[in-house]
Amino acid sequence: MGTSVQVTPLCGVYNENPLSYLVSIDGFNFLIDCGWNDLFDTSLLEPLSRVASSIDAVLLSHPDTLHLGALPYAMKQLGLSAPVYATEPVHRLGLLTMYDQFLSRKQVSDFDLFTLDDIDSAFQNVIRLTYSQNYHLSGKGEGIVIAPHVAGHMLGGSIWRITKDGEDVIYAVDYNHRKERHLNGTVLQSFVRPAVLITDAYHALYTNQTARQQRDKEFLDTISKHLEVGGNVLLPVDTAGRVLELLLILEQHWSQRGFSFPIYFLTYVSSSTIDYVKSFLEWMSDSISKSFETSRDNAFLLRHVTLLINKTDLDNAPPGPKVVLASMASLEAGFAREIFVEWANDPRNLVLFTETGQFGTLARMLQSAPPPKFVKVTMSKRVPLAGEELIAYEEEQNRLKREEALRASLVKEEETKASHGSDDNSSEPMVIDTKTTHDVVGSHGPAYKDILIDGFVPTSSSVAPMFPFYDNTSEWDDFGEIINPDDYVIKDEDMDRGAMHNGGDVDGRLDEATASLMLDTRPSKVISNELIVTVSCSLVKMDYEGRSDGRSIKSMIAHVSPLKLVLVHAIAEATEHLKQHCLNNISPYVYAPQIEETVDVTSDLCAYKVQLSEKLMSNVIFKKLGDSEVAWVDSEVGKTESDMRSLLPMPGAASPHKPVLVGDLKIADFKQFLSSKGVQVEFAGGGALRCGEYVTLRKVGPTGQKGGASGPQQILIEGPLCEDYYKIRDYLYSQFYLL
Hints:
Keywords: Hydrolase, mRNA processing, Nucleus, RNA-binding. By secondary structure, the chain is of the alpha/beta class.
């Protein structure tokens, strides 16, 4: 049998709930994504709570709440203690996302599910990987290799490839095949015939009919129309994910058109977010990287966008039309909710949604058709205590401190009595007059009390009371005291922890205003009131989610052609639609499990480890194919002296084999190649390529179906046997490697 693989959804199947899946590979348990929603519904985490202690490793795919929002809570409350793996942007931007979530909730409620310390603790030991970096696990995971690859949905977003004994398990959710301003498209199509593909059906029923240029034009025209009539524009956005694409679109358009309308990016961590992003250019699109290499132009040096971290700065901005990008996208908390309530009753204003709101949120309600005319909104605000409330709070805190001090002193007294029991070999301990002690405390302050008492408490083995003495016996050599260099190395987590208390810089440290907000311990309370909001403003939704549509998903899965397929994260209708399509066209092994339903997707292949003998390898001729080298080998299986299977040379001449062409031809690339050779070439109907006057070239699947059928594809050349035919065939052969 092949590598044992079981998949158990913990959240996020047959609905749009957060993503969290348990994948077991030969008994090693991966938790892939650990998401939560903006409602922070603890019932969603009940399946995770039952398996958290058995998790061996956590893989994070994207830096938003839906993919990593439950990580601090799971590590603090559910017993999750496994190492976490992510790319650098997912780690850094995910940390800021959780800061923003906490601060947004703390300003409007007594939020206690996790704290800033819990967030720091969860993220400080994340193991950061680069794209395509193969990381070999050790211990229980010996033999397993993990690697993140480009997903194309968010900065640092990853498709995870898990390999064991030559078999691949691919986890690919929320990917985008289209190249965007700040991101390259996914590399999912580079994987062929993995043992298992775990992917989502989120957009299986959605087909994108609008080209990117047309969509951007409609987006910008809609915003401009409302600004020109004196209206304001609100874009509810996430903290550090899809908002980056929107910022670039607006920045570039404002530069081209010379608009004077201000743009504000308002989150609790906006400054830190952009500081981080400016240092992540190597994770972005090729165009951004090349622009920086040639002209040192950083795309995220935003000249037309003002970064704000509190609502007061927005309120004090000059009056007039403005564009505000504010978190949260769900409108459940954050600055966006407050701004919506203020702007909703003005028909000149626009609320522009760029993604589908999470189920059960205010954003989802406003996106319904037809949109509501009135909505009931509970508005909460944290205000400092004052007057009698502040006096009562301080008295209560003082009372609690006195009680705590009394309990501590009683515990200390009991410990002292226990350690100073009757000892016939020791002298009577010194008696201290507590009245004198109190007098000393009253005259010199409370700091002297502990010094006086603690300094004269003898140990049980002492003959006479004395201050404690510690003999520091350091080792010395000819050059002085011997030191341990490791004692002076600054650890990454220490730097990250210290960064919160320093000014912001390019390393992404939090600016002073954000840090002071986090460290604000002034006594306060939350006041709430219900409002009926009249929705007179325009409500528009446009697709800037950065996900592949249904047609692209089907084509991508067909190209990857996995042996077994597991579908997750979509409403029931979309899941069943994609499941039936894949069963009919791609694979007979398609699964769509329910929550906590385990599906066994162990490969039917048998894998053996063999050793390549030196005699065999000395006669092998390799040919370079991309970053790899390939060769055809004729051999027989034998055993070495250590009784290990080995591939040995054939005892006689090997029988001839059919020629094998290795490579992947893209018709569009071949068209450019032929044009460079002076061949007149153009696309004909059905995806065929007309080469010259007589020859036509097309791709066909194994069953003769044109286009993206699963399995190996064939290249068909049609035309009379003439000079052009043989010339085109030679050019075609040159694109492959013959074995």
